[in-house]
Amino acid sequence: ESEVPSFTASKVSQYSCQRKTTLNNFNKKFTDAFEIMAENYEFKENEMFCLEFLRAASVLKCLPFPVVRMKDIQGLPCMGDQVRDIVEEIIEEGESSRAKDVLNDERYKSFKQFTSVFGVGVKTSEKWYRMGLRTLEEVKAEKTLKLSKMQRVGLLYYEDLVSCVSKAEADAVGLIVKKTVRTFLPDALITLTGGFRRGKKIGHDIDFLITNPGPREDDDLLHKGLLLYCDIIESTFVKDQLPSRKVDAMDNFQKCFAILKLYQPRVDNRSYNASKEFDMAEVKDWKAIRVDLVICPFEQYAYALLGWTGSRQFGRDLRRFANHEKKMILDNHALYDKRKRIFLKAGSEEEIFAHLGLDYVEPWERNA
Ligand code: DCP
Ligand code: MG
C-alpha cells in the first residue's frame, strides 16, 4: 500500500548516528519550519524545546520520501504534539502559521540580525535588545556600546561574511592554508572538516583540522600574516581528563577563529562603465572569509575529526547515544568507558564507530 515498501517508520532510530542523512532532503518545507522554531527557542534560551524541534527536523531529513499525510510520520521518533501540529498545518495549508509568526516577531528579527555578526551570540543580543536596540544600523550608531575586537571586525567585514562561502573558495583557501602550514610543519595533516567534508556546496565558514605526526612542535603555528583577524584560543587540554558530558561539547584544542583575506581578482562592471578607464584602486579584489583552524595532538586526530565534521545534531546524538546506550563519554578528544574505566584509543573514525557498536556512517551521510 505504501509507496516506499522497504521503509518502516518504527525502525527509524531516535539517534541520528544510527541513521543515514544525506543532503537530499525531501521534507525541506517541514524542516525549515522546525528550524525556525528551534532558533526562536534558542534565542529564548529554552534548550529543551529547541532540541525537540532540531531532533524532529533531523528525523524528517532522513526520510526517503516527502511527507504528504499524517500517516507518513506515524511511528517515527521525536514527533511530539507541537511537531505534529505543525506538520498537520503544513500538509493542509502549505505553510505553518506558527513559524510565520516567529519570522514576523520583532524580538526574533532583531536577534537574527544581531547573531549574524561574527562574535555576537544570544547573550550579547539579549543585552542589546534590552537596551532598546532593534537593528544593526541602530547598533552601529550607538557609540556608547563597548564592542569586542571580534565584534568590531564582524561589523567591518559584515557584507563579505554574511555572503556564503562556496566550495571553490573553500578549496582555494585550503591550498593557502596547506602551503602556509607546511612551511612550518612539512609533514602536517590538514583536513577540510565541517559542512564541506559532508559534501555541502556552501557554508558560513571553512573549518580545518591540523595535526602533526611525531613530536609536538606545533605551538607557534597560529601566527598572523595572511590573516585579517585572528582570535587565538590557547589549548587548555589536561592530560587524562574525562570527556565532557555537555550537550554541545566545546573542546580544549588550540584553535583560531580567523578571518582570511582571499584575493580573487574580479571585474567590477560599474566602475568600468562609469569611468571608461579601469581604475584598479576602486575594485576590491579580495573577500573576507571566516576560517576555523583547529590544532590537535596526533593521538586525538580521529576524535577531533569526528567532532569537527559534524553535523552539530549528529555530534549531539553520538554523545547522547554513547552516554545512554553504552555508558561511555564521548567528546572531541576521547571516548571513555565508564564501566571499564578506560579510554578507548582510535586511529580512525571507523574505529570510534566500532567502539560504540555503531555501523559506520560516511561523512556525507551525517547531514542530520
Ligand atoms: N564543532 C565542535 N566544537 C565547536 C564548534 C564546532 O565540535 N566548538 C563542530 C560541530 C560542527 C562542526 O564542528 O558540525 C563545524 O562547525 P560549523 O559551525 O562550522 O558548522 P558546519 O561546518 O557544519 O556548517 P556551516 O556550513 O554553517 O559552517
Ligand atoms: Mg563550517
TrEMBL record:
It comes from the Eukaryota. GO terms for biological process: DNA modification; double-strand break repair via nonhomologous end joining. GO terms for molecular function: DNA binding; DNA nucleotidylexotransferase activity; DNA-directed DNA polymerase activity; metal ion binding. Its EC number is 2.7.7.31. The keyword Protein biosynthesis does not apply. Keywords: Magnesium, Metal-binding, Nucleotidyltransferase, Nucleus, Terminal addition, Transferase. Its cofactor is Mg(2+). It catalyses: DNA(n) + a 2'-deoxyribonucleoside 5'-triphosphate = DNA(n+1) + diphosphate. It is found in: Nucleus. Mg(2+) binds at residues 205, 207, 292. The keyword Cell wall biogenesis/degradation does not apply. Template-independent DNA polymerase which catalyzes the random addition of deoxynucleoside 5'-triphosphate to the 3'-end of a DNA initiator. One of the in vivo functions of this enzyme is the addition of nucleotides at the junction (N region) of rearranged Ig heavy chain and T-cell receptor gene segments during the maturation of B- and T-cells. Belongs to the DNA polymerase type-X family. This is DNA nucleotidylexotransferase.
